[in-house]
Amino acid sequence: QVQLQESGPGLVKPSQTLSLTCTVSGESITNSDYAWSWIRQPPGKGLEWMGVIHYDGITYYSPSLKSRTSISRDTSKNMFSLQLSSVTPEDTAVYYCVRISWRVPRDWGQGTQVTVSS
Length: 118
Known about the structure:
Layout: E1 3-7, E2 11-12, E3 18-25, E4 35-41, E5 48-54, E6 59-61, E7 69-74, E8 79-84, E9 93-101, E10 104-108, E11 112-116
Parallel strand pairs: 2-11
Antiparallel strand pairs: 1-3, 3-8, 4-5, 4-9, 5-6, 7-8, 9-10, 9-11
């Protein structure tokens, strides 16, 4: 059974870069059946898809976040990462890493709270 675990700082200062890592166990991130996404949920708001990295390393990003977002991976460690630059308090959210199958989120990490504040 696949498990996803987010890790990273819970507090980031405005204008800095938010960096999170998702460690995957029970499935290889290079399996062509799946893609791997980051999704976030700001307080009191709905879920927001941020981007995806496919089994072959190709990435796609939300148009609204594309200029500030980068998703990368380390296949040797079976993990993928999120970087969001120039953060503001509006980037405060619970961040989830997610396994995607047939374009549908199937498996979620537990989520990690990130607060942007000075």
